[in-house]
Design a protein that fits this description.
Elements (H helix, E strand, L loop, with lengths): L26 E6 L13 H7 L10 E8 L5 E7 L1
Antiparallel strand pairs: 1-2, 2-3
């Protein structure tokens, strides 16, 4: 198995505030998307979750799926963050 990269958002090195595609409001990071799958997913190895998360290339390309939610309209979107 490939060595895990280091996500700059998970590790607090970087913050991004994307614009909401629906209303142009600010979106805030709600954490890794995989943490919301079930009660045990936050405790599973990150690389293992990437093999099962539905994003076919996030593990191979070193990307970390983060869930962002709009503070204005409440819509959410996943962004793949480069590790």
């Amino acid at each position: 198995m490939k060595k895990m990269g280091m996500c700059p958002i998970c590790n607090g090195f970087k913050t991004i505030i994307p614009e909401c595609p629906n209303c142009s409001g600010s979106m805030e990071n709600n954490g890794r998307e995989a943490d919301f799958y079930d009660d045990y997913s936050p405790y599973m190895p990150i690389d293992q979750m990437k093999l099962e998360d539905g994003y076919p290339h996030d593990f191979a390309k070193g990307k970390c799926p983060h869930l962002f939610k709009c503070t204005n309209c409440g819509s959410s979107q996943v962004y793949l963050i480069k590790e």
